[in-house]
Amino acid sequence: MMFWLLGPKLVLILEQFLFSFDAAEELKEAIAKKNHKLVYLYNPNLVDEIWKGSRPMPPNKPIRIHELKYAGVDVASKLSFLRSELIDTCSSAIIVSMLDEIAWLLNLRGGDVPHSPVMYAYLIVEVDGAKLFVDNSKVTPEVLNHLKNAGVELKPYDTILSEIESLAAKGAELWFDTSSVNAAIVNTYKSACDRHFEIHASDRKGNLHNGSNNQSWGPSGVYRASPISLAKAVKNPAELEGMHNSHLRDAAALAEFWVWLEGEIDKDVKLTEVDVADKLLEFRSKQAGFIDTSFDTISGSGANGAIIHYKPEPESCSVVDPKKLFLLDSGAQYVDGTTDITRTVHFGEPTAREKECFTRVLQGHIALDQAVFPENTPGFVLDAFARSSLWKIGLDYRHGTGHGVGAALNVHEGPQSISFRFGNMTPLQKGMIVSNEPGYYEDHAFGIRIENLLCVKQVDTPNRYGGIEYLGFEKLTYVPIQNKLVDLSLLSVAEVDWLNNYHAQVWEKVSPLLDGSAREWLWNNTRPLVKQ
Amino acid sequence: MMFWLLGPKLVLILEQFLFSFDAAEELKEAIAKKNHKLVYLYNPNLVDEIWKGSRPMPPNKPIRIHELKYAGVDVASKLSFLRSELIDTCSSAIIVSMLDEIAWLLNLRGGDVPHSPVMYAYLIVEVDGAKLFVDNSKVTPEVLNHLKNAGVELKPYDTILSEIESLAAKGAELWFDTSSVNAAIVNTYKSACDRHFEIHASDRKGNLHNGSNNQSWGPSGVYRASPISLAKAVKNPAELEGMHNSHLRDAAALAEFWVWLEGEIDKDVKLTEVDVADKLLEFRSKQAGFIDTSFDTISGSGANGAIIHYKPEPESCSVVDPKKLFLLDSGAQYVDGTTDITRTVHFGEPTAREKECFTRVLQGHIALDQAVFPENTPGFVLDAFARSSLWKIGLDYRHGTGHGVGAALNVHEGPQSISFRFGNMTPLQKGMIVSNEPGYYEDHAFGIRIENLLCVKQVDTPNRYGGIEYLGFEKLTYVPIQNKLVDLSLLSVAEVDWLNNYHAQVWEKVSPLLDGSAREWLWNNTRPLVKQ
């Protein structure tokens, strides 16, 4: 966005491709209230004028096929589901611009965005066809064939607006999710429709007496949420299997990492937060199917752990302090799944305060993990379970408790969430994946977070009051939680049982993937605690 | 509401005094959509035509003063708070039509509505005066004096509309809470304003050139929620003391009642649900300051307990079955407070199923009772705490968990609630009273509910993360919960401790008010449970 000062007024010039239609409209309204003005940027592109020749080339990584054994459902079936939605909403076509929705729909993955296996593209799905707007050089012959088989035509990336114009001219009713589709596309459609309407209206004048005055006055667009977001969030069995398998390999890499790190600390080796993150990447990249980290690793020693979105930088980060809590939030993209895990550990003797806070965070983690709830329950209903134990001593954390996670896709996805923000009414559904990550952050001292990924499953309750399903969670993450940090006096018998059962499962599932010191580390770190 | 059929259309005639403005407008819209028509009833009153001479006289109980030692704040202070709200909203006056709001504002109580100590009246509070519209015959000289001291003028009940008209004519901006003020009042004001506007508009025409065209074009009304509802919900120390004291006397009456009932059942006396409710009233009415029941007693044996708003009738109700669960939900109006309590008991040997369900309801009751939460938390955030234990085995209940309760006023009041309905965003605040009443109802078998009243209080937490207050609850109700129905194997140590502590407090607070068999009953029913 640029702005010019003209007299007492600001004129804001907005690059329409960079803002969703909703965001641009909101901005426009806010600006109008202050008597300033928002104008949209059309060609010639002023921003490109500024870049001149210095603009970096757009990312251009080859697109790969996300194999059916991981995707679970073929492209034809996904398009067919989407087309039935088109018919239900009387739309001629839907404009898909969310990159993860395009990747999911077409069983393709890309490498254009760091940490997210997606490619820059637009997709238009019509009742009788589909067009993918993408840079041709990314498309291998194999991908081309895959698309052809699914009836998807290839179009140059930069022809999206002219395609929208020509669809409008043909009278197509286009479906836009204006919360994600950019302003350029929606405004192009709207003005093309206006022109179309004017032409037809003058046509119609002559035809009024031919009884044609009942015909539609041109398309106006269908503006509603994308149906793909929810379909993508509800994982099928193949996606869940991939998530499960990739989590076990990830857990093996983490076991190897932790035994290495503890060894280095024992040897008094000075390691920075970035060194540690780099080494973790090294262990992960040895695992089969590893592609990338799923977000920038948050590696925070002591007070840095209290900075919620801390990203250590080589030139400024801290050395990992063996006498302080160490928070490590990381994840990976594998060919079959996406991981996201946080563990908080102490290499020496934690203080009573650190143990109390850790244990209360753990109690919240357990309460959410163990929750059973009726179908149609939005995530925010469960959020308080994760905070309750902290609240009892006047503590809390300023972030949500859970976000959706894609299957070999974006590590953050909607539409569900588990948060104290009450606006998201999306019910949790069988097959959805959410993170369970309560925390506590003591400014200038330490940060604590314990994060597993969970999959929503049906619970076989002895009753089914109301004739409905009751839902709960199944864990995807199997990595030890440091027993040393647990204040046993605070835990109930049921909570101790939870921790011991979890560790027994971690050993059972992950030890077959390990040998040597990592296997020994896992054994030592999954031993049961006994409440006296 | 009456309706006439005119051809294919319905014409609905609505008695405007019986519908809030919002409800009438909603009805009007719904009817218009179906191409029917809604007309408001004006004089001559068609309904009165139908009644002719047979209509019962309106209730006409004398109004009494709610003593300052119970009210805590004098009328002048309450009116002064309300007038500052008038100034803040640029209103000339507020129209108060909620009977409990009028009673609370004026520290008066009436007897016109069964179970609710209110009188039929309207109140108009202006910046420099106040008018109470009430039947003169209810006003004792003492009340008249009380009102005069507070600067409140008396007006005949049926002059409210003409007063509204004359205020509109004077250009008064009136504040209406259209969710409660009836349609007659709002519509009278609106049409009076319209007339006023027309007169002034024609006046103005001649004046346009005198530079007066910037003057306001007459009043249009201020439409927003009443500020009295929240002020009334947050109890002051005197109100809380009255609530506490009346609850102890109520508990004493209940102890006497329960020992009597158990004795009768032991002697094989056949008692109907109504007999039992009548006897309970008898015990309560012996307590100092007793005025009325606070709602129709729900006395349900066996399957009748599963009917949530069951009201036993003498001619049709059941005999209390000693082999079944018995649910008793009742309350009283005392001069100093209002009570509402539910207990579920078994006179013989409960089944394992009954014990499991009872215990899970109790766990929900304990979880809510013990909740600590940050200020600004709406009640619905806590609702899941009360259901969680039932959800674990696929059970639930189809009513909210908590409602507001007035201090020596209506047993149901807003604005706060604790419910699975997520619309009520009112935060729970220090001094608010809520019921804690989870339940479980097995159709054709039994009903279980355990209800105490709680007062929201500040909790002295060891931390205050975010620099805010953390809130919790203080119990008002001190009546034993039947130990016999508890399945100890399901309770945690902390839950057993809660129950034993509660019973210790019941003994400590209520035994001084009892002697003889009731005191012995209390001793037997407050003995600690021991978890092996």
Automatic annotation (TrEMBL), chains A, B:
Keywords per UniProt: Hydrolase, Manganese, Metal-binding, Signal
Residue ranges annotated for the Peptidase M24 C-terminal domain, each copy included: 469-529
Xref: SUPFAM superfamilies: Creatinase/aminopeptidase
Reported cofactor(s): Mn(2+)
Domain of life according to the entry: Eukaryota
Residues making up the signal peptide according to the UniProt record: 1-23
Gene3D superfamilies in alphabetical order: Creatinase/methionine aminopeptidase superfamily, Creatinase/prolidase N-terminal domain
One GO molecular-function entry: metal ion binding
Transport recorded as keyword: no
Peptidase M24 domain segment(s): 242-457
Stored Pfam families: Creatinase_N_2, Peptidase_M24, Peptidase_M24_C
GO cellular component term of the entry, any: cytoplasm
Family: Belongs to the peptidase M24B family.
Name under which the protein is recorded: Peptidase M24 domain-containing protein
